[in-house]
């Protein structure tokens, strides 16, 4: 067997491309590009067969754009490990994957966003699991509702008014109420006289966020229905369709939204989102790399600790993705 050395640092620069790396290797070691590509493919196959993979009990599911297409990312949320990256998020592929997954009965909780195929696949292939909607995807909708109201209101103003609104309200409105300084509160009080709809939207957004402060499921459900009463036109004195849409979304995913309080340690997909960020970085740094190569770098490019990592303490703050 011939040992092939890779030029140190070449693949880590953002200027490197897949074709550029292969050509440079070919020039330095005297092998053809096709031979190098075949060696790499053989090694990827070896890694795939030898990589230890234990089906997690708490599974995170999300999507990420790699090489121009949406892929499905699977994580072990209990031990904070990347479990797999699938070539597509299409329902038919996911069903086939989970039907063949060894020890899938180990999975008791799945955390995902509101992508309907994820929900369908869990119902069909993992019927005994608890599906939990990631809380940050849910509260993000409240931020988006408030931002939509702000932008609509902003578009109705002249240039001077838009500038003033952006300067004084945009960043203030995305803060949590508990994070506002005394000066912020005074500003909010003054601006409430000029932009009452926006300030009402802010407090409705905050009240929705507060649902996740509930200590148990029953309290959370009660808080949600109190919130739905508070967005009523009779309560606010104005029609706010953005929040009505949010209410309908939560009702459509009611069981999965409130199963958050049934899950161990109130599971969220925060770790999966962090993994997605690293995958996106690898995708940018490896311009021109195939999906298979980026997947391999993400899965096999580091060693996981044998011990479970302590989950990070997550607080609902301004905007989470």
UniProtKB/TrEMBL annotation:
Domain Transposase IS204/IS1001/IS1096/IS1165 DDE, chain residue ranges per copy: 59-297
Pfam families, A to Z: DDE_Tnp_ISL3
Span of the signal peptide: none
Entry-linked NCBIfam families: transpos_ISL3 (NF033550)
PANTHER family: TRANSPOSASE FOR INSERTION SEQUENCE ELEMENT IS1557 (PTHR33498)
Name of the protein described by the UniProt record: Transposase and inactivated derivatives
Organism: Moraxella caviae
